[in-house]
Amino acid sequence: MQHMILAYKFHHQLKFAPLLADLFTVLLRQAPKQSLIIPIPQMFETTQSRGFIPLWHILKQTDIDGHFAPDALMRIHHRNLQVSATAEQRRRQIKGAFAATCDLSDTDIVLVDDVYTTGATLNEAAKACQQAGAKSIKCLVLARGKWLK
Fold first, then answer.
1. Phi (first) and psi of residue 17, to 5 degrees
2. Is 87 among the domain residues?
3. To pair with 91 at 20 to 30 A between CA atoms, which of 20, 41, 98, 120?
4. Are strands 98-100 and 108-116 parallel, antiparallel or unpaired?
5. Contact (CB, 8 A) for 4 and 86
6. How far is CA 50 from each of CA 11, 43, 53, 70, rounded to the nearest angstrom?
C-alpha cells in the first residue's frame, strides 16, 4: 500500500487514484456522520512541483457525502519533506506547522492523511484543531509507514 501511495504522489502514477479513493470511501463511511473531514495540507512548494494535491485529488473521487473542508487547515511554515527524515527530524520539522483557518468550536473532526509514519504530522494538525475549538478529533490514514534501514 505504501509503495502504491508513494508511486502515486512522487511519480504521478494517477492510475492508482480510483483504488485509493475506494479504500478511503470504505474507511470514511465509518466516521461519525456530522464530522468535518479535513485533509492534511501539503506544502505550497510541493503543490507547485507536483501540479496537484494528491490527498485532495483522491478524496474528491470518494463516494462520500461528507463535509469536506480542504482549506480548514493551512501550513504556516514549510520545511523539508518528511519522507526521508528520521523520527526526531520529523517532530522538529513539523512542530507548529499548522493553523486552523476557521472556528472549529464544537465540531467533530476527522483528519485524513495518506501515510502514518511517526504520527508527528497528525499530532501537530490535531493541536491546531484543538486550539480552534474542535470538540473531538479522529485520524484516518490509508497506510502505516515503516522505517527501512
1. -55, -50
2. yes
3. 20
4. unpaired
5. no
6. 9, 11, 7, 17
- The CA–CA distances, whole Å, from 117 to 7, 30, 34, 75, 107 equal 17, 22, 28, 19, 26
- Residue 51: partners with Cβ closer than 8 Å, 6 or more residues away: none
CATH classification of the domain holding 130: 3.40.50
Residue 113's nearest CA partner among 127, 103, 99, 123 is 123
Q: What pLDDT is recorded for position 100?
A: 97
Q: How many domains does the chain have?
A: 1
pTM for the predicted model, two decimal places: 0.85
Would residue 149 count as lying in a domain? no
Instruction: Provide the grid cell at 136.
Output: 473531538
Among 98, 141, 94, CA closest to 116: 141
Residue 84 inside a domain? The answer is: yes
Q: At what angle do helices 2-10 and 17-28 cross, to 10 degrees?
A: 130
| 41-88: pLDDT as tens digits | 987 777 677 777 788 888 888 877 768 898 999 988 766 555 666 777
The CA distance from 63 to 77, in Å, is 32
Confidence of residue 115 (pLDDT cuts 50, 70, 90): confident
